[in-house]
Amino acid sequence: MPPEALSLEGPEKEWSFGRLLNLKQPDVSWTWVDSSLSLYACGFEVSDAEGLGINFNHLPQDQGTLWVEGSTEILGGFDADCRPKHGAFAVRPLKGNSLVLWWQGASPPSFEAQAVVVPSWKKLEGFGDAGDCLPDAACPEALGWEDPRRAVVMMLTNNNTRFCTGTLVNNTQEDGRPLLLTGRHCNAQANSIVWFGYESPFCEGGDGSNQKSLQGLIPLAERAQSDMELFELAQQPLPQWQVFFAGWSRDSLAPNETHCLQHPRGDVMKYARDNQAPGRSVYVGPDLGVGPYWRVNDWDIGTTEPGSSGSALFNPNKQVIGTLHGGFASCANDLEDYFGGLYASWNGTADTLRLRDWLDPLATQTMALNGKYISVPALQRDLALKFPFPDSMLRCNTGPVQVLCTNFGIQAAQNVRLFVRVHGQEQTVLLDRPLNSGDSLYVDLRPWLPSAPEFLDLEVELEGIFSGGQEEYPVDNISTFHLMQRAGTQVKIKYRTDEKPLESLFLLKDRNESLVYALAEPSANSLLEQNICVLPECYLWIAMDAGEDGICCNEGQGSFSWSWGNQPELWEGFQNFGSLDTIGFCVPQSYAGPNLMGVYPNPAFRSFRFFYPAELLDEPIELRFYDVSGRLAYTWVPEKLIWEEVFPEALAPGVYMLVLADLQGNIISKARLVWSSDL
């Protein structure tokens, strides 16, 4: 990479994959979607974009959950545990020219963000952009480097640049602290994004996965003289990723060969090797045997390119000895590269200007440390809360509502207290007792819950008081569970069997086609009444009869009906349905009547089923599809059934607001649809 393209003032801007677009209120603002869930949404569209990402200048760390939805995928939810405490937060770009943000919380945050507009998805991907002389990390040339590959990340920053490489490094405490080493000139930001495992699945293979992504960097130390910067990841890599913490050496004696794992030009991971010992020099200087840089005089396999910056130089022991600043090397020549040496970054006048405090927190003064896989438990807490009860018990006030309190710590909690907040009201102490290591305790919350809430905002907090000894996670002595739950509705089924009840089968399924209820096997010519607790949404009632004669006529006079609340029976009869029939219906949020429309499945592709209120069967209505910019994209006129299958013709993938309206334009109901032409 030409050194004139690299400086301590900024990154390699020629590899920017897009542009920034400031998002300001009221141009982009939150819209209330569902009061019972405290759900808000906002969306925007950029006509010439093939992809959109978003960088938040600040999000409140201790409240709310965020989802980011593109045309084909949804990222989230990012709750307080997933977002850095400093508030800056970024989400990788998603395909499409529209983006919808969903926020669940008491109130949406003020909007301080920039959209990352990607005019070319190919430019964003970067796959295939590296020179032909660079072998993939999965090729035979890199045999034996499988472990260090799991420590390497590609970096995306908030100035739209897929531009640098970083390496996760071990420390003498070997505690799995996610320390990331890269180049200072990369100018990584607090809301930068890193991708683990971005490599081809096989030699000269296809593109790599970008699913192993984390948001947020916490700066720890930097040193301009050797172009070093050390960060801590704001999020711990997931245990199932099996990341590797690379070893390192601060020895100033040159090894007999060097290796490099990198993401040149934002491409999948590549490998380079020099079979000779590196020299010592100043940056872009001759090999004089002194200076803060390792000078790789020429590569024997592969090379480096823009985007390789910050990548690690390894010795034959697979230990990091430096990070790439720049140089003249490319596929077109055998010229040199310069890596800031760890030996030159080890000491400094403060911990923010050196590596030793971070890589050797035990002050062992070791010269070298090997890499290691470090098991990080998925549940890093002493105390945990679980709600093992069925949702329906909470929705419809049936039976006890138990919370499970568990001490995962290595010592007993001398005292644990359980608090409950309902709709934000003052804490109520429910429990005051010890809890031994490994013990669990069930507590029934029913006495502290309202009898018939329209919706329930419930927060339960478990606090432990430890003294003496040592805990496994000493700062984690509080566990909180927050649940926002819509109230359920008791639906009553009356079912009179015919003379052959075992021929018939009745099922209730929700919009995701999950089974909610199956009618028990009754006796012949009997009346069964059953109450079912359901959420206020849309359902499908499926009736089947193996005798192909329904539940009437030749073999008795069977029937069934539905009702809820104080409403009269919604349906009566439904007798002579032959071998199969279905009814789609929607349970309202109140007892005012069936006034809620719905769609399922959602997200949908090719087609979806649409439900609308039964009382509108005789009214002229139409269903309108509005995209995120508010433009009418499609109109469909129902055929006057309780539910119908809709096949939108030539509807582009995206997120749409469905508006059910009469022919005068009066809005009757709304629903949201995520649509894809294929999955």
Descriptive notes:
The protein is mainly β. The chain has five helices and 46 strands. The longest helix is centred in the first third of the chain and has 5 residues, at 121-125.
In total, how many beta strands?
46
Radius of gyration: 31 Å
Alpha-beta classification = mainly beta
End-to-end C-alpha gap: 40 Å
| Total DSSP helices | 5
Mean pLDDT: 77
Strand content: 35-45%
Helix share, percent? under 10%
Overall geometry comes to elongated
Unreliable spans are 1-17, 589-596
The largest sheet is:
9 strands, mixed
Brief characterization of the structure:
The chain is mainly β.
Features:
679 residues, mainly beta, seven-stranded antiparallel beta sheet, 41% strand, elongated
What is the fold's blueprint, element by element?
Layout: E1 19-23, E2 31-34, E3 39-45, E4 51-56, E5 65-69, E6 74-78, E7 89-95, E8 98-104, E9 113-118, H1 121-125, H2 146-149, E10 152-156, E11 162-169, E12 179-183, E13 193-196, E14 213-215, E15 217-223, E16 228-233, E17 247-249, E18 258-262, E19 270-274, E20 279-281, E21 293-296, E22 312-314, E23 319-327, E24 337-341, H3 342-345, H4 356-359, E25 368-369, E26 383-386, H5 391-395, E27 402-407, E28 413-422, E29 428-435, E30 440-444, E31 455-465, E32 478-486, E33 489-496, E34 504-510, E35 515-518, E36 527-534, E37 538-545, E38 559-564, E39 580-586, E40 598-605, E41 607-611, E42 621-626, E43 632-636, E44 643-646, E45 654-662, E46 667-676
Parallel strand pairs: 17-23, 40-46
Antiparallel strand pairs: 1-9, 2-3, 3-8, 4-7, 4-9, 5-6, 5-8, 10-11, 10-13, 11-12, 12-16, 13-14, 15-16, 17-25, 18-19, 18-22, 20-21, 21-24, 22-23, 23-24, 26-27, 27-30, 28-29, 28-31, 31-32, 33-36, 33-38, 34-35, 34-37, 37-39, 40-41, 41-44, 42-43, 42-45, 45-46
